[in-house]
Design goal:
2 domains, binds zinc ion, Alpha-Beta Plaits, 13 helices
Length: 350
């Protein structure tokens, strides 16, 4: 799937898509050392978080599924409702805009307000093999009272102007229904059978679009997990582990300093730089706050070189949260050591 998507995206000359291609190629290739909100450094897989990435979609799907199931468990009388647009020879972006706009209009109608208290839903996009047209469906789990199928159909036709395809049924098995709806988050679109231009069109149309909709009493019930995969505690990716190892190979002074601290950090941090922990040796003193700060600075220095190797690292900053702007607190003394462990010089660095 990954190779298929990469090959298709590689066929375009569109700058934005090519940028995404680079990120997709580097997805999970290397673990990243990232700064956490508590000032420490942790290790995260280098997720690209692109809608087209099978790995990231799978992770996102699993996370959303659990939350959807929790939300459905809170519903009084859940119903499964599918809204579909009659396909036209329009671009996918135009079709999705039309679908979301129509759904917004439907939610404003008196009939909707009288029968639906709230709910959650996901988007499914398919490509017809017979006519080559896009089909978009909204799979919704709504909480409310009985609403006659014919009445929903009439209302949907009124807001869309041309579509009356609506499916509604009562939910008997909440877990099964929420799994079904969540499938469309985790399930990568069936791109195998598509041509390269169609894959690129899909990639553009889906970029930045909400895959999970929440409304009424369930508005924000999923708390933006759809767009948030990495933990909120990560504030800045510092460098990748391979970049650090490569700098170590060149005997870079910052890399050596970072390694010594990472080795003391123990656990996954120590293993990431191949530091051997002797079980018989006395336990090293845990890193002090100023040492975590020094480690952060050293890893940033190493990353000056890493960006050449991982060009996607820079844009990833904005996905992990607010970019690190550098405040007075970051100014600290970086103490460098020679091989015998004696300090060589102190430098105030930002
Ligand atoms: Zn990815």
């Amino acid at each position: 799937m990954r190779h298929f998507v990469l090959k298709a995206l590689d066929s375009t000359t569109d700058a934005a898509t090519r940028k995404r291609l680079k990120r997709l190629e580097a997805c999970c290739v290397a673990p990243l050392l990232a700064l956490k909100s508590d000032g420490r450094v942790g290790i995260v897989p280098g997720f690209c978080r692109d809608r087209m990435c099978p790995t990231c979609q799978h992770h996102r799907g699993r996370e959303v599924a659990a939350r959807v199931e929790h939300a459905v468990g809170r519903m009084n009388a859940p119903r499964f409702l599918t809204l579909t647009l009659r396909h036209q020879t329009e671009s996918l972006t135009a079709m999705l805009d039309r679908l979301y706009a129509s759904f917004r209009l439907l939610r404003k109608t008196d009939a909707w307000k009288a029968h639906v208290a709230g709910g959650i839903g996901t988007l499914e996009v398919t490509l017809s093999q017979t006519d080559g047209c896009w089909h978009a469906h909204l799979h919704l789990l709504v909480d409310g009272s009985f609403w006659k199928h014919a009445d929903i159909k009439a209302e949907w036709l009124r807001v869309t102007g041309d579509s009356e395809i609506v499916w509604v049924e009562a939910v008997h098995d909440r877990s099964k229904a929420s799994k079904y709806v969540s499938t469309y988050i985790g399930k990568p679109a069936d791109v195998y059978s598509w041509t390269d231009p169609k894959v690129c069109e899909y990639a553009t149309a889906m970029s930045g679009r909400r895959l999970v909709v929440t409304f009424g009493t369930f508005y924000r019930a999923i708390a933006a997990t759809d767009d948030c995969q990495t933990k909120a505690t990560l504030v800045e990716p510092l460098t990748s582990v391979p970049a650090l190892l490569r700098s170590l190979g060149r005997d870079d002074v910052y890399a050596r300093f970072a390694r010594s601290l990472l080795a003391r950090g123990g656990g996954l941090l120590a293993r990431s730089v191949g530091a051997h922990m002797d079980p018989a040796a006395p336990k090293p003193t845990p890193l002090a706050p100023h040492e975590w700060a020094s480690l952060t600075i050293a890893l940033r220095r190493v990353n000056g070189d890493a960006t050449a190797w991982l060009p996607e690292l820079e844009p990833r900053r904005k996905w992990l949260g607010r970019p690190h702007t550098g405040t007075a607190r970051d100014r600290c003394t970086l103490r460098l050591f020679d091989d015998a462990g004696a300090p060589t010089r102190n430098a105030a660095v930002r």
